[in-house]
Amino acid sequence: MSITNPERIACSSDGSVVYVTHDFGTVAKSTDYGVTFIELSLTILTNSGAVACSGDGSIVYVVEWSTNSSDDAGRLYKSIDSGVSFTDMGKPAGPANSPESITCSADGTIVYVADFSDGIIYKSVNSGVSFVATTAERVAIFPKGIWCSPDGV
């Protein structure tokens, strides 16, 4: 399959496993350093999404972006089986629940989400179950990308 309208990308620590959100809400995976891709079963509701994965690529997080806090978008999805299936984790962070970017530690247990509406970065230390603000101040206007070290610091 070809990747159209690529939006966000994440890869394993050695680069062999690549995930990309593309084509207005779909997620694809490569296990050959991005040479070929397969479509994953998750189709998100909105026209944009961000993706993060663990160092070995087995844990995958996808957030959908939304500027409207009253809709059902802005949800966090998690896979613990390399993208074969996803669990809807609900809306992860922020008063308007508008996640724009996501990153995670190499083991996938520490997750950061940057919220579009308030510009605050939220942190989870329990694999995306719950999040707390890392600061009360806006740190970004349009947080297109966030990253953390392999240990999640």
What's the quick description here?
The chain has 153 residues and is mainly β. The chain has strands at 8-11, 18-22, 26-30, 38-43, 49-53, 60-64, 76-79, 87-90, 99-104, 111-115, 121-124, 132-133.
Helix share bin: under 10%
Rounded to the nearest angstrom, the radius of gyration is 14 Å
The largest sheet has its strands arranged as 1-2-3-4
Largest sheet: 4 strands, antiparallel
Based on Cα principal axes, name the global outline.
globular
For the terminal residues, how far apart are their CA atoms? 36 Å
Q: What is the number of helices? A: 0
* SS-based class: mainly beta
Approximately how much beta-strand content do the residues carry? Answer: 35-45%
SSE topology string: EEEEEEEEEEEE
Tell how many strands the DSSP assignment holds: 12
Average pLDDT number: 83
Low-pLDDT runs of 5+ residues are none
What does this structure look like?
With 153 residues, the protein is mainly beta. The protein has no helices and twelve strands. It has strands at residues 8-11, 18-22, 26-30, 38-43, 49-53, 60-64, 76-79, 87-90, 99-104, 111-115, 121-124, 132-133. The strands form three sheets. The chain has a four-stranded antiparallel beta sheet, with no helix packed on it. A hairpin with a 6-residue loop joins β1 (8-11) and β2. The protein is globular and about 40 Å long.
